[in-house]
Structure formats: C-alpha cells, structure tokens
Amino acid sequence: MSDQTIAPEPEGAPATLSSRDRIVPSRTDPVIAAVTRPLGGPLGEHAAVGRHWFWSPQRVGLLLAVLALVLCWFGKASCIQQYTDGAGTTQLDWRSGRPFVAMCYSDVVPLYSSEHLNDPDKFPYTSSWLESTQTAENGTRYMEYPVVTGLFQWANARLADGWLTLSNAGWLPGAIPVAVYFNLVAFWLALAWLVTVWATGRVAKRRPWDAVLVAISPLVLVHAFTNFDAIATAFTAAGLLAWSRKRPWLTGLLLGLGAAAKLYPLFLLGVLFVLCLRAGRLREWGRAAGVTAGTWLVVNVPFLVFATRGWEEFFRLNTLRPMDPDSLYNVFAYFTGWTGFDGILQKGQNPVWLNAVVAVLFLACCAGLAYVALTAPRRPRVAQLAFLVVAAFLLTNKVWSPQYSLWLVPLAVLAIPRWRLLLGWMVIDALVWAPRMFYYLGVDHKGLPESWFLGTVIVRDLAVAGLCVLVLREIYRPATDPVRLAGDDDPAGGVLDGAADRFRPRAKPRHRAETVPTS
Question: From the CA atom positions of the chain, what is the Rg in Å?
Fold first, then answer.
C-alpha cells in the first residue's frame, strides 16, 4: 500500500505535481505491470520520475494518440480509393461493397455529396434540396447536423475547393474532391481528439498516465473518423478541465460550443447542478449554466431567426428517426418478435410512442442518479456521475451510432481508472464494428445475419452496464474507488473538490468501513 497511499494535495499547491505525487500505473495496475515485464518490470521505488527534459506522461500520451490516429486513417483510407471508369472519368471506388468488406466506412465520405457540400453555391441551413425519403418533408431537405458541426463540414468543403484549385495549378498533390475533403476533415478531427487526450490528462492530475488509455483506445482506432464526434468530445473534455481549474465562465463557454456541435455536453450541466446543490455551490453552477446558454444562443439564434426551417432540420429528423439497428429496442423487437417499436415510418408519421418511452426511461435514470448523488455517503466525483448519465442516455436512446461510444472514453477513464476493465469494454465495443459492417453488406452478398450483429450489441451493452454497476458500487463504497484510495477527493471537481456538504436528504446510514475520510 505504500506505493498507492499518497497524502492529499495541500491547499494552494502548484498545478505541477512532484514525482512522488503521481500514481504510477506499473505499480498499481496488474495489466500495466504485466506489459512492463519484458522491459524490466514495474518502475522501481527509487526511480527518477518526471525529470526528463521532454518526455512527460502527457507528451507520451499525445505521441501515442498521433500513432493511433494515423492507424485509424489508414483503416479508413480504403474508402477514398479511386478508379477510372470506361468513360475515362475518375470515380470513388465503392464497388462490390468495399466500405463494408474493408470495414472502412465513414459518414464523412457520403455526406460530402448527400449534404450537397460539393456545391459551393449552397450554404448550410439556408439552402435546401429535394430528396425522396420517408423523413423528408414534402421532399425538401436541409443540413441535418447542429450548427457548429454543419459549419465545420461546410468550411472543410470550401478548403477542399481551395486545395483543388492549387492542385490544378501544380502547387499541391491532387485527388478526387471527396478524398481531399475527407483528408482535411480527418486532420481537424485528429486535432480535436488530441485536445481530448490533453484535457483528460490535465484533469487526471495525479494519474496523468491514464490519458494514455484515451490515446490508444481501440474505439479511437475504429471511430475517430467515422463521424464528427471528436469535436464534441474536445469541447466537453476542455470544459471539464476548465471546471476542475475553478473557471465556471470558461466551462460555460466550452460546453456551450460543445452543445452547438452535439447535444450531449449539456448533460454535464445537470451533473454539476446536482453536485453543486449538495455542496451549496450553486452560484458557480449558475455562472457556468448562464454562459453555456448564452454561448449556445449566440451560435444558434442567427440561424434560428434567418433560416428557421433549415435550423429545425436536426431536431425534426431526430424526432422522426426510427430506432437504430443496434438500439436495445431493436434487440428486444428482434428476439421477441414484438412489433410495437418496429420503427417503420410512413410519410409524415412520427414514432410518438417510441420517443415517449425513450424520454421516460432516460428521465427516470436521471432522477435515480440525482437521488444517488444527493444521498450517497460521500458526494460522487464529477466524472463518475457524468459517465453514468451519458451511459444511461446511450443505453436508453433509440439511436446508438457506433461513434457515440467515443463520448464515454474520456469520462470512463476519469471515472474508472482500471485499465483491465476499460480495455476489455473498449475492445468489445470496437469489435461490434465488424459484424455491423457485414450485417449491412447483406446475407445475399456473403454478409452476416442480423442475429449475429445483435448478439454483439447485447455483449457491448452488458459491458457498459457492468461498468455502471461498478461506478455505483464505488460511489457507495468510496474505499474501493482507486482515485479516493490514493487520497484525492475529486480531481475534476474544481470548487467541489474537498467541499463540505450543505444539502443532503436523509438516507439510510451505511457502515463506516465503506467510506474513507475526506481530504
């Protein structure tokens, strides 16, 4: 226990911790200890830590993240290959189900044309087009993403136009437009994930090596460039870092921008509200919430006012969207044969009951987690509650797109710094991609039947649910929490870190051995 038991950080201590303050994974985690055996074993008791002039844990993590992102790009590169057809025209090579057979599919590629980003005369939310789909109102479609994500796509499409102009002049290498567009998008998404790794490592404080798990996550290898979710994870992780540094206005700014890219960063406001209520820190929460709302309005109001119909498209399509193939509702419907939530939409119809069930289940989970946060013997850590809320949303939602799992990665690393368990879940979640691709390929084209795909979905959901159970156990038994066992209270807590409770409803008392003293 001598290597794991560390005295609490004194009030007013500098942000840079000394080597003895750091948690060394090779000493505390069986997985890392086993990995280091070929290199000489765990770090020695008297080894010099943190004295190298360049290779800090954070820089190592960022380097590993770069390597993981490069591997992810190579995995997706098969989907931007090109060929010359019989007419001598260069085309994107998606013949013979290449995106599914090579498992390189990325939404970025088809959206370039389907969202009319290849047309420089069309601007998101103000321009529309006709499309014959069940969810297109009178055949009219607009950009289907929130404002920040939609503008990100449009800006990269215009950068691709500029690149092609220079390549035609002989200044830059050339390719088909969609390939140039994908590579530009991948570059910025890679930077966004590097920000996610950096911010997570800074929040972890005494556990900077945990950010390596964010950097090399199997989910990053598969999904960093599947969609645009790295933008939201970067804003969320940076917002959490700002909160940990007691800067609620900056937290609000970052969460507001994140919510304008993807709505899930707003869940952190609910988490912070409950924890601030218990600690009597609602003033700081009010500042963060106010700036979040103001930032979101500044970004969205111009489009809401001047391009109302286009701005509403994201919300309208999410309302009309049926259940995803890998949602629990589809799993239930498939294996039971019940068709109540079959998700088949007729034109103009709305899956009202499915939407209502989703909303009720998620709100019930939120209410339960609020009860846990207010009545637990010790106030939960911010990362613990944030992970539970986001996991509850994914498990109860009618859509769990594969890249959504990226949302959980930094939160899980901060909430459950147990490498063996997290790597197990991440591997399972990443492997769902293979049966998903072959299910989409179709049995007629030597793909997999739906039951095989849904079986892996069940395993993935059980793994996430198991992590949730573990977090709840550590909330009610803080002595089993690795972060608090090391002497910390809440590294991501900011004003909540070490704060006394001001409001706590009566709860059934628990045995004293299940708690650890506050720092």
Answer: 24
285-300 burial, b at 16+ Cβ within 10 Å, e below that, comes to: bebbbebbbebbeebb
Q: Do 210 and 201 contact (CB within 8 A), yes or no?
A: yes
Q: Are 161 and 371 in contact (CB under 8 A)?
A: no
Given a contact cutoff of 8 angstroms between Cβ atoms, the answer to whether 482 and 384 are in contact is no
User: Which DSSP category does 386 fall into?
Assistant: H
Cβ–Cβ < 8 Å for 147, 260? yes
Per-residue pLDDT of 49-92, as tens digits, reads 556 556 788 888 999 999 999 999 999 999 999 988 878 788 89
Please count the other Cβ atoms lying within 10 Å of the Cβ belonging to residue 330: 21
> Do 465 and 365 form a contact (C-beta atoms < 8 A)?
no
Q: CA triplet 414, 419, 423: central angle to 5 degrees? A: 105
* Long-range contact set of residues 28-32: C-beta below 8 Å, sequence gap at least 24: 28/3, 28/4, 28/482, 29/418, 29/419, 29/420, 30/420, 31/419, 31/420, 31/423, 32/419
Q: pLDDT, tens digit, for every residue of 417-438? A: 999 999 999 999 999 999 999 9
Q: How far apart are the C-alpha atoms of 154 and 116, rounded to whole Å?
A: 9
Residues counted in the chain? 519
- Burial (Cβ within 10 Å: 0-12, 13-18, ≥19) of residue 352: exposed
User: pLDDT digit string (tens) for 501-512?
Assistant: 988 886 555 444
| Interatomic CA distance for residues 118 and 158, integer angstroms | 8
Question: Distance (Å, rounded) from C-alpha 118 to C-alpha 126?
Answer: 15
Tokens at 44, concatenated: 């020695």
